Amino acid sequence: KSFQEVLVLSDRDDTFTKESAELYAVCLEKIAMIQIRKTNFNSALHTLAKLENYMKLDRVKWILGEDHRLFSTLYQYYGFIYFQLEDLDKSYDYLYKGYLFDSKIHGENHVNAAICKHHLGIIQFFKNQYPAALENMLSIAEMFHEMSGIDNEDCLLSLMMLGNLYSKLGQLEKALKLFEKVKDIAKEYLGETSDEYIQSVTDIARIYKKLGDHKGAFHLQVALLEKIRESKNKERFAEGLVELSDTFSKQEKHKEAVYTAELAFTVFSKIFYLKHEKSINAYNFLMKIAEIAQDEDVLDKYGKLRIVMKHKDETSSESSTSNS
Questions:
Q1: Which pLDDT score is estimated for 249?
Q2: What pTM was estimated for this model as a whole?
Q3: Using CA atoms, how far apart are residues 176 and 164, in angstroms rounded to an integer?
């Protein structure tokens, strides 16, 4: 509301100055930022369109210049929103524009250019373009380290993405080294209950399983679950149970696998409502584990829910098609 009030005060033709023009534009930027944080993405897109049109006015371009930092903000915000809306092509296009803009104005080693290139790599990863993603992530991982220190969130995310890329490409030893590095950094700077630490240990355990070291994965997961339990993060705890159940299953400890999967589903369904996506995923995982274990009791006990979950999936699919 405060930013909207300032918008009205600054948008006066009789007092148009560089300061008033910049104030008006910055208020729109802040409003869009708040809308993004509140996940009001459609409202944010409307605000960004208003900002973009304002910045393209001849009198504004003349007084603020065509290389104003807000053009970079526009591209980054658009890219972020479309990524959240799962429109990866539009997200990529805007982030690439942002990368070109910042590289031209400030050089390729500028932080904004690096951030855009970093997110371009993430999009390439999600589009299964692993070689291109690897090239992008390799080129900026050290850049983030030099810019802002090893505890920088973007630096840690870059290392995680690199690890995932190496894992996808079958280079497990390289992936393991990166995940170990992230774990050590996160432990030192962010603590053992941080998302970065938990994710890195989870990734290490997954690599262990791919290498056939199920015992090593088991010990890591149990120790991690104890730390998560102490932090009272129920969602992370349930996710850890799913990982542990998968390890039990790969060791052919079917009774333990089913019990752990059932516990994970119970926790998810209590945190969220039954038809929430995470509850549905946990349910499907439980049924898969129960089928592998040929546990008829569990299959009978939860079999009735299958119709409910299937109906939810069909409804979601129809709703998604309608929205599209």
A1: 95
A2: 0.69
A3: 9
